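Ops channel
N.P.: pipeline sanity check, posting one input/output pair.
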């Protein structure tokens, strides 16, 4: 059966800012520093912590520089491919179309509802349109069949997002943070991954980032 085959055209590295998770912003900053890459990101979705008066960033957006991802080499290959490639780059063109963060004050719970879809910015998708339509009509598992690797990356993205939100909820239940979606005003911002690492020192290992961080340190 025909599965998705990326042609490494690099279009997705030039089409729009790239949504990443908090631990990825942390990793990419270190990599950019090591590689001398001009990296710029901004917080995506934020919640307010009434206890510290800070915003906690639950996601980030990596900005393009001159219309390109700063990690895209001149030959259109990714310079961090073998060290750490963001999950959304690994799942592309099977990507989150809508991410809704839900806050339950009653349960002291933060969780996300994510809807995935296919990006038509990828030329392979346009080329395989008939195949994809046929698969969609024949099985609800079409995405697993056509995008085996990309689907696995998408699942990993959601596992990591869920894990970090669960740990944030745990901090809320313990009274360490007090979450409010109504942020009002301008506040200092803390990266969720970095906040969690303060309270869960083995977080990199819980998240399966040990090898990645060793690889980065070895660079
Ligand atoms: S646009 Fe599609 S084919 Fe081109 S690099 Fe991205 S995923 Fe691969
Ligand atoms: S990190 Fe690599 S794969 Fe992702 S957008 Fe940048 S160059 Fe492309």
């Amino acid at each position: 059966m025909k599965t998705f085959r990326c042609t490494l055209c690099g279009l997705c590295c030039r089409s729009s800012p790239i949504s990443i998770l908090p631990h990825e912003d942390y990793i990419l900053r270190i990599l950019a520093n090591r590689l001398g890459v001009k990296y710029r990101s901004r917080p995506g979705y934020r919640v307010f912590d009434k206890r510290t008066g800070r915003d906690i960033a639950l996601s980030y957006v990596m900005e393009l520089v001159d219309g390109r991802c700063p990690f895209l080499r001149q030959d259109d290959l990714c310079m961090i491919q073998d060290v750490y490639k963001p999950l959304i780059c690994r799942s592309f063109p099977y990507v989150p179309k809508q991410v809704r963060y839900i806050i339950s004050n009653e349960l002291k719970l933060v969780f996300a509802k994510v809807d995935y879809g296919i990006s038509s910015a990828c030329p392979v998708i346009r080329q395989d349109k008939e195949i994809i339509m046929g698969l969609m009509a024949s099985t609800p598992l079409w995405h697993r069949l056509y995008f085996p690797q990309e689907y696995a990356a998408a699942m990993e993205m959601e596992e990591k997002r869920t894990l970090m939100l669960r740990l944030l909820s745990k901090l809320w239940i313990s009274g360490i943070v007090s979450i409010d979606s109504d942020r009002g005003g301008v506040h200092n911002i803390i990266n969720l991954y970095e906040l969690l690492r303060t309270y869960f020192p083995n977080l990199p290992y819980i998240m399966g980032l040990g090898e990645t961080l060793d690889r980065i340190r070895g660079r």
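N.P.: looks fine end to end. The first helix runs from residue 22 to 35.
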